[in-house]
Description:
The structure is a single chain. By secondary structure, this protein is an alpha+beta fold. It is built from seven helices and six strands. Strand 1 and strand 2 (58-60) form a beta hairpin. Mean pLDDT is 81; it is low at 19-28 and 32-57.
Amino acid sequence: MMFFARLLLSTLLIFILHGTAFASIPRWPEPAWFAQLQQQQQQQQAPLPVEQGSSVHTTLTPAEQHIFAAINTERTLRGLAPLALDPALVALARRKSQDMASNGYFAHHSPTYGSPFEMMRAAGIRYNFAGENIARTTTPANAVQLFVNSNTHRRTLLNPRFSRTGIGVAQVGRQLFVTQMFIGFMR
């Protein structure tokens, strides 16, 4: 009996990691009130400008804003300094999320760009410490919960060595591909 339970759990995990477990399940259309609620929430959230002492200017989407604010709340509740937004990391995180969404994979290593560290080096981003969190989910709030409830992701977002971050969200249907990149410097 235990063998079959483990086999079933392993099979489900493989399907979920490869994103095929629920791909064939038909989805009901969203009710009209749900679409209206989402539009109201997006209208209420003004875009957050990101400027870091250069001529680069980026605006976060409402989903990216939510994740950024929630992550910094988690950090400050634990006595850590909030992360600053880095426009170059925002651009890379968006590129990574879009790459995952467009090419149908979910992994830290991109078949297009390689590892997050290779992406950063190729973009000319300097750092002493770097990390990445990724999530595939349906809401920004759920992405934050996934990060906070996972030991590995939580250690990354609460790492006191990190001082800058970039968040990128790509959406395909109801699926959000979330990438958060972190860098830090020796003091």
